[in-house]
Structure formats: structure tokens, C-alpha cells
Amino acid sequence: MICESEAYHSCLATVVLQKNFRCKYQNHCLEMMVQDAPWMLQFYIQDEKIKKFFRGIIDTYCSSIQNHVLNAKTKLLEQGIIPPVELMPDERKLRFRDILFEKELTIE
User: pTM to 2 decimals?
Assistant: First the structure.
């Protein structure tokens, strides 16, 4: 939603695409994130803490000429293996439920 609004500049996909270096798997990773991530994550992805987390990943691995080859997803893709969406570049696994349930819920 944010990527299609006037606030597109804060969309994580826009941030990725504006970097100087683009890994050859960058589009593939973006598509996987959009298609395979739980739909509820869309509502949380604009949280500043979560955006900062993902921007750190983008800067450290995805947009780094030196570090993109260290990315766990890149290593699997180079072997012809489709990595799971929850696999992080540093080989940890992101549990989406942790993101979803650590968010404070307000019922009015």
C-alpha cells in the first residue's frame, strides 16, 4: 500500500531499488518477500522498528558489493535452491509470528 502512495520513498522496495549496487537476485528476493510473506506482515512492515531492521539487512547484504556473496539466500540461489522466505542473510531464521505478536495491539 505504501509503495503505491505518495509516501513511496519510505517503501522498502523503493529503498532497495534506489541503491547503487544491485545483486542479481535482488528482484527475485523482493518478489519472494511480497508473494511468500504472511499477508498480515503488510500491516506491520511500516513500523519504524521493523523498517529499520529490514533496512539494516538491505544495507549490510543486499546493497553491498562486498557482502552480497555472504548472503545465505544468495548462496542457495547460486546452487539452484529456492531459499525459504524466513531465511535471513546471516543464516538466522526470522519468525514472522515474532514480528506480528510483539506489536502492541490496541482494541477500542
Answer: 0.66
